[in-house]
Amino acid sequence: MAAVRPRGPNILVTGTPGTGKTTVSEHLAQLTGLKYINVGQLATDLNLFDGYDNELQCPIIDEDRVIDEMEDDLSAGGNIVDYHGCEFFPERWFDIIFVLRTDNSILYDRLENRGYRGQKLESNLQCEIFQTILDEARESYKTEIVHELQSNTSEQLEQNIEQVQMWINQWKAQHGQ
């Protein structure tokens, strides 16, 4: 009989667009061997949309189809999930959640450099000012697994990667991996 491979941790890296989620997630996947899932890219690749928001100039993700598509990977474990939302994912999926936060003056420049304008820019800045993503994470998951990380500088980016990598190593040690 084959030995059952232990499930690796599932990590959600979330935050307002422009806070560094993709950079952190991609680096962690390379360093740890965990599978990287960029939800926005997954939705684009598989056309998992349910319309278009003209005001925010972006497609509307079909959350049910995204969850269906991700279920097998998340049930198997060993994933780093990158997305700017968090409340629609099943609570059982994640062992830990990191919410990246960025000061608005820095975030403004990052989003403007990405071509965000008008309502889309304003909406994302308001989201960060009112810590919308952090509050959603705290309301949707056990508060002890939700961690806020500042993401303003390249030094903080490196510290965040190191901190999450240390958590992964600790999780693996606690789970016999």
Number of strands: 7
Portion in strands = 15-25%
Mean pLDDT value? 95
Global geometry: globular
Q: What is the rounded distance between the termini?
A: 20 Å
InterPro entries: Adenyl_kinase_AK6, P-loop_NTPase
Enzyme class: transferase
Subunit structure: Monomer and homodimer. Interacts with small ribosomal subunit protein uS11. Not a structural component of 43S pre-ribosomes, but transiently interacts with them by binding to uS11.
Pfam families: AAA_18 (PF13238)
Defining traits:
7 strands; two-stranded antiparallel sheet; alpha/beta; 177 residues; globular
Short summary:
With 177 residues, this protein is α/β, with parallel strands linked by helices. The chain has helices at 21-32, 39-46, 63-76, 104-113, 118-129, 132-140, 154-174, and strands at 10-15, 35-38, 49-53, 58-61, 79-82, 96-101, 146-150.
Topology:
Layout: E1 10-15, H1 21-32, E2 35-38, H2 39-46, E3 49-53, E4 58-61, H3 63-76, E5 79-82, E6 96-101, H4 104-113, H5 118-129, H6 132-140, E7 146-150, H7 154-174
Describe this structure in words.
- A hairpin with a 4-residue loop joins strand 3 and strand 4.
- The chain has 177 residues and is α/β, with parallel strands linked by helices.
- The protein starts with 9 loop residues before the first strand and ends with a helix.
- It is built from 7 helices and 7 strands.
- Residues 38-61 are annotated as: NMPbind.
